[in-house]
From TrEMBL:
Coiled coil: none annotated. It holds the Pfam family Lysine_decarbox. Keywords: Cytokinin biosynthesis, Hydrolase. This is Cytokinin riboside 5'-monophosphate phosphoribohydrolase. Belongs to the LOG family. Residues 1-45 are annotated as: Disordered. It comes from Streptomyces katrae. Its EC number is 3.2.2.n1. The lineage of its organism: Bacteria, Bacillati, Actinomycetota, Actinomycetes, Kitasatosporales. It catalyses: 9-ribosyl-trans-zeatin 5'-phosphate + H2O = trans-zeatin + D-ribose 5-phosphate; N(6)-(dimethylallyl)adenosine 5'-phosphate + H2O = N(6)-dimethylallyladenine + D-ribose 5-phosphate. It is an enzyme of class 3 (hydrolase).
Length: 254
């Protein structure tokens, strides 16, 4: 009888190996099993779930979930602000009023889904019977989505989440906030300045809070030639809820 399977003994490593779209030759050939065998081998190593190729698939899945969930949203405005804003503060009340006013103007409201100013805007949107969206992020200090979010997504990766904010918003309203709020605000300003996005109003709410930053931009950044005077027109500053909503509706054509 002839030999069957591996009865002929161990085989020499091939000089060429095709693994899906990847071609390996000579010293790059990997010993081991086929792709199907590795898939079905439940006793195999688990380290692969922490490799960069696997992370790419996770990143891809987050984009797909985000695009699929948010694609049918009506026009929306993202509201940013500090997670540490106290519930009994004027800033929280302003967030509630802004969320409600945006719904009345015909917009869905998107926030980072957390507490504080984000919760306030979601609360205003929900109480106005609008669409209240929260785009959360996985953090070491667990926050979770606030109770006023009706449509929520939690992301592993900041850059995927930030793409969703810009792609599915027609503008930003930025309440007083910390590093995360500044991050979102300056990314939006950069995208508008470099014309990656157009017709994108950015409204900073709270002249006293934002005044020092604006003075620094004018008297240091622009004065030293690091930015242009016209860059100050990339955003608006106001203390009035109605004016903030008017600026957003005017610039997005609603």
């Amino acid at each position: 009888m002839g030999n069957h399977g591996n009865a002929e003994g161990p085989r020499r490593r091939p000089e060429e190996q095709q693994l899906g779209p990847v071609l390996r030759r000579r010293g790059q050939v990997q010993a081991g099993s086929t792709t199907d065998q590795r898939l079905l081998d439940s006793a195999g190593p688990s380290e692969w779930v922490h490799t960069d190729p696997w992370r790419v698939l996770r990143i891809q899945s987050e984009f797909i979930e985000g695009f699929g969930t948010l694609a049918e949203l009506p026009p929306a405005i993202s509201v940013f602000g500090s997670a540490r804003t106290p519930v009994d503060s004027p800033e929280y009340e302003a967030g509630v009023r802004i969320g409600s006013a945006l719904v009345e103007a015909g917009f869905a409201v998107i926030t980072g889904g957390g507490p504080g100013a984000m919760e306030a805007a979601n609360k205003g949107a929900r109480e106005a019977n609008g669409i209240s969206v929260g785009l959360g992020i996985e953090l070491p200090f667990e926050q979770g989505l606030n109770q006023h979010v009706d449509l929520g997504l939690n992301f592993r990766y900041f850059f995927v989440r930030k793409t969703m904010f810009v792609k599915y918003s027609q503008g930003f309203v930025v309440l007083p906030g910390g590093l995360g709020t500044l991050d979102e605000m300056f990314e939006a300003l950069t995208l508008v300045q470099t014309q990656k996005i157009t017709r994108f109003p950015i409204v900073l709410f709270g002249t006293e809070y934002w005044g020092g930053l604006i003075d620094w931009l004018r008297n240091t950044v622009i004065a030293q030639g690091k930015a242009s005077e016209k860059d100050l027109y990339l955003f608006h500053v106001t203390d009035d809820v109605d004016e903030a909503i008017a600026l957003v509706t005017k610039e997005v054509g609603k």
